Amino acid sequence: MNDPADCAALHIRVPSAGGASSHILKESLMATETHVEELEHIEELDAIIAAGQGTAGALIPVLQKTQQLYGYLPQTALRRIAETLKIPFSEVAGVVTFYSYFTTVPRGEHTARVCLGTACYVRGGKEVLRGLEEKLAISPGDTTEDRHFSLEIGRCFGACGLAPVVMVDDVVHQRVNPNYINELLVQYAVRDDADETEEPS
Ligand code: FES
Q: Are the C-beta atoms of residues 177 and 185 closer than 8 Å to each other?
């Protein structure tokens, strides 16, 4: 996975835009010029951008914080970041599409991250991923239509002795096997249903 935190720490040069995916994102953003989506948390976003102004290499941290704010990177926010930081929009699009960490699609209520680090991979992580893909009917990086689950791939959560590991939100599920997947998913569905039907005290 292209993790911006890793690359930033290693001072790897930010890629310039140019691939097909960045071209698609650029086209998409151009289209929003006639239909600017409403953006919530605008003051928080402006504060995030302002903190990065005048700082070399600020783009990735600003994008990370923006994604933390919204759960994804709204197209209008990307344009605002580019304009305010005076960075060519093509460069912003290139960074967003290069790092798999970034997403321009709203994420699900829950995010399942399947570890495919070495220990998890050799102990069946790939089969666990395949099982989740089949049950959720989505691929890594995607979100179910009902926005309940997003699926991602991770590279070691520091629990190698418990491999294979799946993290759902902040909860580590250890020694997962494909037979556990139904149980895992139902567990989250049941919990949400219980929350929704809970009587106010
Ligand atoms: S390889 Fe999966 S937790 Fe370390």
A: no
- Per-residue pLDDT of 13-30, as tens digits, reads 333 334 444 455 555 555
Mutation choice for ligand 1 from 113, 114, 115, 162, CB with most ligand atoms inside 8 A: 115
The answer to whether the predicted template modeling score (pTM) of the entire model surpasses 0.85 is no
Residues with CB under 6 A from ligand 1: 115, 117-120, 156-160, 163, 165
Residue of 114, 128, 156, 172 with the most ligand 1 atoms within 8 Å of its CB, for mutation:
156
Residue 43: pLDDT band (50, 70, 90) is: very high
| 112 and 132 Cβ atoms separated by less than 8 Å | yes
β-bridge partners, 113: 152, 167
Q: Among the listed ranges 38-42, 52-56, 139-143, which one has the minimum average pLDDT value?
A: 38-42
CA of 181 to the centre of ligand 1 (A): 18
**Structural domains of the chain, with CATH:** 4-98 (no CATH), 110-197 (3.40.30.10)
Upstream peptide bond of 164 is cis (omega within 30 degrees of 0): yes
